[in-house]
Amino acid sequence: MTTSRSNNVRKCREALLMSKAELARKAGLSALTIDRVEQGMPCRMDTMRKILIALGMNLSEKTRVFPE
C-alpha cells in the first residue's frame, strides 16, 4: 500500500462527466474503493493502474492523477 495523499481522481472523473459508480464499473472496483481513493486513503498500485485505464489515460500520465 502507498501512504495517504491527495490525488486528482475526483477532478479527472468529473471532467469526464463520470459518476463514481461508472468509474468503479469501468475499473472493475467497488464504488466504495473509488470513494476511499478520492478521499486520499491509501491504495495499491494495481488499483491506481485500473483507475488510470478506466479514466482513459496512459500509465505514463500517472502523475496527473496521482502526484508523487
Percent helix: 40-55%
Low-confidence stretches: none
Form type = globular
Task: Count helical runs.
Answer: 5
**Quaternary assembly:** single chain
Key attributes of the depicted protein:
single chain; 68 residues; mainly alpha; 434 Repressor (Amino-terminal Domain)
Write the layout of secondary structure elements.
Elements: H1 9-15, H2 20-27, H3 31-38, H4 45-54, H5 62-65
Helix pairs in contact: 2-3, 2-4
Offer a concise description of the structure.
The protein is mostly helical. Helix content is 54%, strand content 0%. The protein has five helices and no strands.
Notes on the structure:
Helix 2 packs across helix 4. The model has no long low-confidence stretch (mean pLDDT 93). It contains five helices and no strands. It has 68 residues and is mainly α.
